[in-house]
Amino acid sequence: MIFNKVNYSLFFNQQCSLCQLQPAEISGLCEDCHADLPWLLLGCPICGLPRSSPDQPCSLCQQKSFKFDRTEAPLEYRFPINSLLPGIKYQRRIQALGWLAELLVHHLQDRCETWPDLLIPVPMHPIDEALRGFNQAELLAERLSRKLQIRCHSGQLRKVHRRAKQMTLHAAARRSNLKGAFSIHGELPKSVALIDDIMTTGATADEIAALLKNQGASQVQVWVLARTPEPDRD
Ligand SMILES: [Zn+2]
Ligand SMILES: [Zn+2]
């Protein structure tokens, strides 16, 4: 019987997706790697900005700077997440999206009291998507849709103008760079979640949330894997 048990563990225990050394225990990770992730424990309830004080809106959100209502992000954009997410985009390490999506699902199941009716991934311009071969936000949204049984529609929101890369611009320039970059088609339900891998300044989510609200949505949540610690960090 012991022999059978050992064989079973050899065949069926997955290794940790990060260290590849210990068996995966939680969401594809070993306990140590899971505990060492840069968890976002306290964030602004509206924009997710990591904070040291309890769940109060940050100074930007107190001035009602954003059109979206809430941000959910399980992680801060720090090591190893700040090397994993670019690795997905630029080195096609798409398999990491599997366990990262699991982390987001667990976070949402702990935090969400009301669920949106529709998931919409932040779109890429068709030329950029063709060059990369995939849109990581769309892959993430499809996984969330399957796990949470919420409809996902990636064709409804489109990026119609190709602009300078947001990561090369400062906060104010990011906002003006996005004006008119997106278009939305068709009716929307009242409650929508916008899906992306990362939120940096919130400018992209804000531009899209304004469009979604003009088109009939009254509640827009933003679900991302990671939030940058400071708005102007990159
Ligand atoms: Zn590990
Ligand atoms: Zn905020």
TrEMBL record:
One Pfam family per UniProt: Pribosyltran
Source domain of life: Bacteria
InterPro entries given in the database record: ComF/GntX_DNA_util-trans, PRTase-like, PRTase_dom
Domain called Phosphoribosyltransferase: residue spans: 138-230
Signal peptide limits: none
Family: Belongs to the ComF/GntX family.
Protein name: ComF family protein
